[in-house]
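step=encode ok
step=design start
structure_in=
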């Protein structure tokens, strides 16, 4: 019995001593302590991220000075998502980087739509149409001159694409049409069958159904009537207008981004969110910032 009383006294003493230590009130809260840096992310991870962005956005690796500069800036902000977005934006818009970035976007679009044709081949096509137009002008054929110059201007639209972006935002859909509505694209995808199938495959990652093909044959082949995504079309230009304005084009663009930068297909929710983004923002640079600032791209495991 004495032993039990002794144990109860020991318990009361422990409670009296411990309670003040574990109690919490406003006097115990310190609000002026700085948040310690996130040391769980190694400098090597940040360096690899910077170099990967340089390769994907500029087509080259970062120099030693560039690597030191951007790694320091990213680490000073704990490699936060916002710091990554700012870094990406600087590559997209800062003098010295912007032209490299725009040229890389141009090269990537040529790879997607024009089988990565080099500039000499594209310029030769423009020169061909110009020479033909000048010959028609000499012969006094004004109608032929205008038609031939129109073909030449389509090619020049490709050549001048990156220059146009220097003073304007990148409208990917319009540029996609420019890449497909010209004689070079026709040569690469000769005939109505190949043109329709290529335009579906490159933008939708699928081939047309028999019904879709049959409806588009006349507009593409001889400017006849057809229906595409419940809209009337009567030529190749109208068909491409409907294509680039469709929800499925936006879906294909989201899939292209994920395939290009994350090397995988988007999940269902990512696809839904991406389509919604392109339906409301149509901001090419902004979507790149969204993808490349993500932890997955940055190499941060959860």
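sequence_out=
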């Amino acid at each position: 019995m004495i032993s039990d009383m002794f144990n109860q006294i020991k318990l009361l003493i422990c409670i009296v001593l411990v309670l003040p230590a574990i109690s919490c009130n406003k006097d115990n809260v310190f609000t002026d302590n700085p948040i310690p840096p996130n040391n769980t992310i190694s400098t090597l991870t940040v360096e690899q991220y910077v170099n990967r962005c340089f390769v994907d956005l500029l087509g080259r690796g970062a120099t030693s000075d560039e690597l030191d500069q951007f790694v320091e800036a990213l680490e000073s902000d704990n490699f936060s998502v916002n710091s990554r977005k700012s870094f990406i934006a600087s590559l997209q818009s800062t003098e010295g980087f912007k032209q490299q970035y725009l040229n890389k976007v141009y090269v990537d679009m040529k790879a997607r739509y024009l089988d990565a044709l080099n500039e000499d081949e594209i310029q030769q096509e423009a020169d061909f149409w110009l020479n033909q137009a000048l010959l028609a002008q000499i012969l006094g054929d004004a109608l032929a001159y205008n038609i031939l110059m129109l073909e030449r201007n389509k090619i020049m639209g490709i050549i001048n694409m990156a220059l146009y972006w220097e003073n304007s935002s990148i409208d990917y859909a319009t540029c996609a049409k420019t890449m497909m509505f010209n004689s070079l694209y026709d040569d690469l995808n000769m005939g109505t069958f190949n043109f329709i199938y290529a335009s579906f495959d490159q933008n939708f990652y699928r081939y047309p159904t028999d019904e879709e093909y049959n409806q588009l044959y006349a507009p593409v082949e001889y400017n006849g009537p057809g229906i595409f995504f419940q809209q009337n079309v009567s030529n190749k230009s109208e068909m491409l207008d409907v294509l680039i304005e469709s929800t499925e084009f936006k879906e294909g663009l989201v899939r292209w981004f994920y395939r290009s930068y994350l090397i995988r297909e988007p999940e269902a929710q990512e696809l839904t969110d991406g389509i919604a983004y392109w339906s409301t923002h149509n901001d090419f640079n902004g979507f790149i910032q969204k993808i490349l600032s993500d932890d997955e791209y940055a190499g941060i495991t959860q």
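step=design ok
step=annotate ok -> The longest strand covers residues 226-228.
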